[in-house]
Amino acid sequence: QSVLTQPPSVSGAPGQRVTISCTGSSSNIGAGYDVHWYQQLPGTAPKLLIYGNSNRPSGVPDRFSGSKSGTSASLAITGLQAEDEADYYCQSYDSSLSGSDVFGTGTKVTVL
Amino acid sequence: EVQLVQSGAEVKKPGESLRISCKGSGYSFTSYWISWVRQMPGKGLEWMGRIDPSDSYTNYSPSFQGHVTISADKSISTAYLQWSSLKASDTAMYYCARRKDYGDYGASFDYWGQGTLVTVSS
Q: Are the Cβ atoms of A103 and B47 closer than 8 angstroms?
Protein backbone atom coordinates (compact mmCIF):
# COMPACT_ATOMS: atom_id res chain seq x y z
CA GLN A 1 0.00 0.00 0.00
CA SER A 2 1.16 3.54 -0.73
CA VAL A 3 2.52 5.73 2.06
CA LEU A 4 1.31 8.91 0.30
CA THR A 5 -2.45 9.43 0.35
CA GLN A 6 -4.40 11.36 -2.29
CA PRO A 7 -8.16 11.80 -2.80
CA PRO A 8 -9.44 9.30 -5.39
CA SER A 9 -11.11 11.97 -7.47
CA VAL A 10 -11.69 15.68 -7.87
CA SER A 11 -13.79 17.51 -10.45
CA GLY A 12 -14.45 20.99 -11.68
CA ALA A 13 -16.00 22.96 -14.49
CA PRO A 14 -13.85 24.48 -17.21
CA GLY A 15 -12.12 27.59 -15.94
CA GLN A 16 -12.40 26.62 -12.30
CA ARG A 17 -9.58 25.91 -9.84
CA VAL A 18 -9.06 22.46 -8.34
CA THR A 19 -6.54 21.24 -5.80
CA ILE A 20 -5.18 17.77 -5.08
CA SER A 21 -3.70 16.95 -1.70
CA CYS A 22 -0.88 14.49 -0.97
CA THR A 23 -0.56 13.47 2.67
CA GLY A 24 2.56 11.76 3.93
CA SER A 25 4.40 11.34 7.23
CA SER A 26 7.55 12.17 9.15
CA SER A 27 9.60 9.65 7.16
CA ASN A 28 8.88 11.15 3.75
CA ILE A 29 7.38 14.59 3.12
CA GLY A 30 7.71 15.62 6.76
CA ALA A 31 11.39 14.64 6.76
CA GLY A 32 12.08 17.36 4.20
CA TYR A 33 12.12 15.30 1.04
CA ASP A 34 10.85 17.02 -2.08
CA VAL A 35 7.47 16.22 -3.60
CA HIS A 36 7.03 15.80 -7.34
CA TRP A 37 3.85 15.52 -9.39
CA TYR A 38 3.04 13.56 -12.54
CA GLN A 39 0.21 13.73 -15.04
CA GLN A 40 -0.91 10.55 -16.77
CA LEU A 41 -3.24 11.07 -19.70
CA PRO A 42 -5.35 8.05 -20.68
CA GLY A 43 -3.30 5.34 -22.35
CA THR A 44 0.01 7.16 -22.01
CA ALA A 45 3.09 7.10 -19.81
CA PRO A 46 3.28 9.46 -16.84
CA LYS A 47 4.83 12.88 -17.44
CA LEU A 48 6.68 15.02 -14.90
CA LEU A 49 4.48 18.02 -14.11
CA ILE A 50 6.05 19.61 -11.01
CA TYR A 51 9.46 18.88 -9.49
CA GLY A 52 11.06 20.03 -6.28
CA ASN A 53 7.68 20.88 -4.69
CA SER A 54 6.88 23.89 -6.89
CA ASN A 55 8.98 23.97 -10.06
CA ARG A 56 7.60 23.43 -13.55
CA PRO A 57 9.64 21.73 -16.26
CA SER A 58 9.91 23.57 -19.54
CA GLY A 59 6.66 23.39 -21.49
CA VAL A 60 4.32 22.87 -18.52
CA PRO A 61 1.69 25.63 -18.41
CA ASP A 62 1.75 27.97 -15.43
CA ARG A 63 -1.85 26.90 -14.68
CA PHE A 64 -0.20 24.09 -12.73
CA SER A 65 1.41 24.93 -9.39
CA GLY A 66 2.67 22.99 -6.41
CA SER A 67 3.27 23.65 -2.75
CA LYS A 68 4.40 21.79 0.34
CA SER A 69 3.85 22.30 4.05
CA GLY A 70 4.67 19.99 6.93
CA THR A 71 3.76 16.42 6.03
CA SER A 72 1.57 17.36 3.05
CA ALA A 73 1.78 18.80 -0.43
CA SER A 74 -0.74 20.13 -2.92
CA LEU A 75 -1.14 20.48 -6.66
CA ALA A 76 -3.37 23.26 -7.94
CA ILE A 77 -4.79 23.57 -11.42
CA THR A 78 -6.24 26.98 -12.24
CA GLY A 79 -8.29 27.74 -15.34
CA LEU A 80 -9.19 24.06 -15.70
CA GLN A 81 -9.28 22.85 -19.29
CA ALA A 82 -10.73 19.74 -20.94
CA GLU A 83 -7.24 18.44 -21.73
CA ASP A 84 -6.41 18.44 -18.01
CA GLU A 85 -8.65 15.43 -17.49
CA ALA A 86 -6.14 12.80 -16.37
CA ASP A 87 -4.73 10.91 -13.41
CA TYR A 88 -2.30 12.80 -11.17
CA TYR A 89 0.27 11.26 -8.83
CA CYS A 90 2.51 12.74 -6.18
CA GLN A 91 5.92 11.16 -5.48
CA SER A 92 8.59 11.50 -2.83
CA TYR A 93 11.30 9.54 -1.03
CA ASP A 94 10.81 7.53 2.14
CA SER A 95 13.69 6.91 4.51
CA SER A 96 11.91 4.15 6.42
CA LEU A 97 11.46 1.78 3.46
CA SER A 98 15.06 0.87 2.62
CA GLY A 99 15.48 4.10 0.72
CA SER A 100 12.42 3.72 -1.46
CA ASP A 101 10.94 6.20 -3.84
CA VAL A 102 7.20 6.25 -3.25
CA PHE A 103 4.11 7.29 -5.22
CA GLY A 104 0.80 8.61 -4.01
CA THR A 105 -2.41 6.68 -4.49
CA GLY A 106 -3.39 8.81 -7.47
CA THR A 107 -6.24 11.23 -8.20
CA LYS A 108 -8.55 11.25 -11.19
CA VAL A 109 -9.37 14.78 -12.33
CA THR A 110 -12.66 15.09 -14.21
CA VAL A 111 -13.61 18.20 -16.15
CA LEU A 112 -17.37 18.58 -15.95
CA GLU B 1 16.82 14.46 -27.15
CA VAL B 2 16.57 12.18 -24.14
CA GLN B 3 14.69 8.97 -24.90
CA LEU B 4 13.93 5.75 -23.10
CA VAL B 5 12.68 3.09 -25.49
CA GLN B 6 11.23 -0.10 -24.04
CA SER B 7 10.82 -3.52 -25.59
CA GLY B 8 7.48 -4.65 -26.95
CA ALA B 9 4.46 -6.26 -25.35
CA GLU B 10 4.78 -9.81 -24.06
CA VAL B 11 2.29 -12.63 -23.56
CA LYS B 12 3.55 -15.41 -21.30
CA LYS B 13 2.28 -18.42 -19.39
CA PRO B 14 2.53 -18.80 -15.61
CA GLY B 15 5.89 -20.21 -14.60
CA GLU B 16 7.74 -18.87 -17.62
CA SER B 17 10.68 -16.48 -17.38
CA LEU B 18 10.87 -13.05 -18.95
CA ARG B 19 13.25 -10.13 -19.39
CA ILE B 20 12.11 -6.75 -20.68
CA SER B 21 14.42 -3.90 -21.63
CA CYS B 22 14.76 -0.13 -21.57
CA LYS B 23 17.32 1.56 -23.83
CA GLY B 24 18.44 5.08 -23.06
CA SER B 25 19.73 7.59 -25.59
CA GLY B 26 20.46 11.29 -25.84
CA TYR B 27 22.28 11.51 -22.49
CA SER B 28 25.07 9.91 -20.50
CA PHE B 29 23.45 6.61 -19.49
CA THR B 30 25.78 6.07 -16.54
CA SER B 31 25.01 9.48 -15.00
CA TYR B 32 21.42 8.72 -13.94
CA TRP B 33 19.81 5.84 -12.11
CA ILE B 34 17.01 3.98 -13.91
CA SER B 35 13.88 2.98 -11.99
CA TRP B 36 11.13 0.52 -12.85
CA VAL B 37 7.48 1.28 -12.09
CA ARG B 38 4.52 -1.12 -12.20
CA GLN B 39 0.96 -0.18 -13.08
CA MET B 40 -1.55 -2.98 -12.74
CA PRO B 41 -4.74 -2.72 -14.83
CA GLY B 42 -6.83 0.20 -13.64
CA LYS B 43 -4.50 0.87 -10.69
CA GLY B 44 -1.89 3.37 -9.61
CA LEU B 45 1.88 3.62 -9.96
CA GLU B 46 4.13 1.44 -7.80
CA TRP B 47 7.89 1.98 -7.53
CA MET B 48 9.67 -1.38 -7.90
CA GLY B 49 13.34 -0.57 -7.68
CA ARG B 50 16.26 1.22 -9.30
CA ILE B 51 19.73 0.61 -10.65
CA ASP B 52 22.84 2.73 -11.00
CA PRO B 53 24.05 1.82 -14.50
CA SER B 54 27.60 2.90 -13.69
CA ASP B 55 28.17 0.01 -11.27
CA SER B 56 24.87 -1.96 -11.36
CA TYR B 57 24.14 -1.20 -7.70
CA THR B 58 20.44 -1.79 -7.03
CA ASN B 59 17.75 -0.81 -4.52
CA TYR B 60 14.42 -2.62 -4.38
CA SER B 61 11.07 -1.79 -2.86
CA PRO B 62 10.39 -4.25 -0.01
CA SER B 63 7.24 -5.23 -1.93
CA PHE B 64 9.26 -6.44 -4.93
CA GLN B 65 12.53 -7.61 -3.35
CA GLY B 66 13.10 -11.24 -4.29
CA HIS B 67 10.34 -11.26 -6.92
CA VAL B 68 12.15 -9.44 -9.74
CA THR B 69 15.72 -8.69 -10.76
CA ILE B 70 16.93 -5.38 -12.16
CA SER B 71 20.13 -5.29 -14.17
CA ALA B 72 21.89 -3.11 -16.71
CA ASP B 73 24.45 -3.28 -19.51
CA LYS B 74 26.13 0.09 -19.71
CA SER B 75 27.95 -0.85 -22.92
CA ILE B 76 24.63 -0.74 -24.76
CA SER B 77 22.85 1.80 -22.50
CA THR B 78 20.15 -0.68 -21.57
CA ALA B 79 18.44 -1.58 -18.32
CA TYR B 80 16.46 -4.76 -17.74
CA LEU B 81 13.68 -6.08 -15.54
CA GLN B 82 13.36 -9.82 -15.27
CA TRP B 83 11.27 -12.55 -13.72
CA SER B 84 12.31 -16.18 -13.25
CA SER B 85 8.79 -17.53 -12.79
CA LEU B 86 5.86 -15.36 -13.81
CA LYS B 87 2.48 -15.37 -12.10
CA ALA B 88 -0.88 -14.16 -13.35
CA SER B 89 -0.62 -11.34 -10.82
CA ASP B 90 2.42 -9.99 -12.73
CA THR B 91 0.07 -8.87 -15.50
CA ALA B 92 0.65 -5.13 -15.73
CA MET B 93 2.19 -2.25 -17.63
CA TYR B 94 5.82 -1.72 -16.68
CA TYR B 95 7.56 1.62 -17.13
CA CYS B 96 11.21 2.53 -16.87
CA ALA B 97 12.08 6.08 -15.84
CA ARG B 98 15.22 8.16 -15.51
CA ARG B 99 15.83 9.21 -11.92
CA LYS B 100 17.02 12.80 -11.44
CA ASP B 101 18.71 13.07 -8.06
CA TYR B 102 18.41 16.16 -5.84
CA GLY B 103 20.88 14.95 -3.21
CA ASP B 104 19.49 15.12 0.30
CA TYR B 105 16.05 16.06 -1.00
CA GLY B 106 15.26 12.88 -2.92
CA ALA B 107 14.70 12.48 -6.64
CA SER B 108 12.13 12.80 -9.41
CA PHE B 109 11.56 10.84 -12.62
CA ASP B 110 12.12 13.28 -15.45
CA TYR B 111 11.91 10.98 -18.47
CA TRP B 112 9.80 7.86 -18.95
CA GLY B 113 9.73 4.99 -21.37
CA GLN B 114 6.57 4.27 -23.32
CA GLY B 115 5.76 1.21 -21.22
CA THR B 116 5.82 -2.55 -21.79
CA LEU B 117 2.59 -4.48 -21.33
CA VAL B 118 3.16 -7.90 -19.80
CA THR B 119 0.25 -10.35 -19.88
CA VAL B 120 0.53 -13.63 -17.99
CA SER B 121 -2.22 -16.10 -18.73
CA SER B 122 -2.62 -19.83 -19.12
A: yes
